[in-house]
Specification:
- This protein starts with 11 loop residues before the first helix and ends with a strand.
- The protein is an alpha+beta fold and 457 residues long.
- The radius of gyration is 21 Å and the shape is globular.
- Strand 20 and strand 21 form a beta hairpin.
- Helix 2 runs antiparallel to helix 11 and helix 3 crosses helix 6.
- It folds into two domains: 365 residues, DD-peptidase/beta-lactamase superfamily (Beta-lactamase); 84 residues, Lipocalin, CATH 2.40.128.
Length: 457
Amino acid sequence: MTNRLTPSPFPILAVLLIAPLCLAATPDQVAEIDRLFAEAYPASGPGAAVLVVQDGKTLLRKGYGMAELELGVPIAPDMVFRVGSVTKEFTAACVLQLAEAGRLSLDDPVEKYLPDFPSGGRSVTIEQLLTHTSGIRSYTDMPGWFGASMREDRSPREVEALFDGEPFDFEPGTGWHYDNSGYVLLGEILEKVTGKSYADLVTETIFRPLGMNDTHYGSDAPIVPKRVAGYLKSPIGVVNAPFLSMTQPYAAGALVSTVDDLARWHAALDAGKILSSESRRRMWTPKHLPDGMDTRYGLGWIVWSLDGHPVVEHGGGINGFQTANLRLPDEHIYVAVLSNCGGCADPRALALSAATLLVGRPWAKRPAANVPTAELDRYAGRYRDAEGDDWVVAREDDHLVLAAGLRRWKAWPASDTEFFLRDAVRTVRFVAGPDGRVTGMAIDEKVGPVETARRVP
């Protein structure tokens, strides 16, 4: 479950259904995409299963790296991975199905279904849970959760107890913060309305009808054929991922799947097999805050614009696994990347690079502007974001290097003040005061409002 992801105010559905077909991919383009993933996931380390589809035709379906390091088992493209927060797409679809059937409304308050939830007199709606605008504290952000707490088996109500009574991040509907707690509550609401467990509901209404036979609620105990092991890149090298009880991610991030099943899911959405056109329009329309801010998040989906073209996606990060699930609707391109290594290559950036390479606008090869080194030197320093995390900026030859914790990224100039990363879906813009001194760095993750990190001594 990613805490920070790892959405454009126009009707995405119309783009999906009437956009013109793009030119067919060339063998050289496919070969270059193959090299991109082969370099990102060496054969001897953890890797990924990858699927690239254009106009319904599979261009690339391949495994890279190892599914099991101790036994030396390579990844095959039909293997099963934890998909983390991609689960939210399915949770949102189940909610929308019930709304279509008149069994709930997105405007309903949470207390209508969960009367014991301590909202402190606030009215929190189902839509606000779906769009991360409820203000409810995300339990995965809470101090101490990433440790002994995440190892414990908990019922949905016991997971809810982790954040019951916690102060709200903001008044409902007035802000945006990625929130796993909201999707736990959605899972409880689904169970309350249907009388079925979340696992049974999503299986009966989506997986079984679509023939998604390798997609399940990712419980630890059952034997799941072709399920891969998860790893983590650490300061001492690659290690086994720390244990997480899969009772806790629940409707926010507990599913496992394959690249083939995810492609079936996307094709079914486009064909109208799961939701009505109105539900899909609403799902793929990003929420705007009262001040007009575009959150770039719809109902379980990230929706943003690149060079005037929509990008519709959702990824996931969960112990030992990172996932990207991305489409360019204008060009009818879909890319799935399921990786079994947390902290290794960035699947989201790789998926975007592969998709944009096919349309001649490769993210990983964006040209850099020529900016004097003296100008670059102005930005060197330390910056602190709203979550208290420090970013260190330094100049390296003709570009900048951003460092946060153990991660480092090269930032290339698009102009004197704006920079882009080729190996992450992020851009940054430096902000100066009236006296010309640099005071902050605006960080744009292409989801949620742009965040400004202030410069600190």
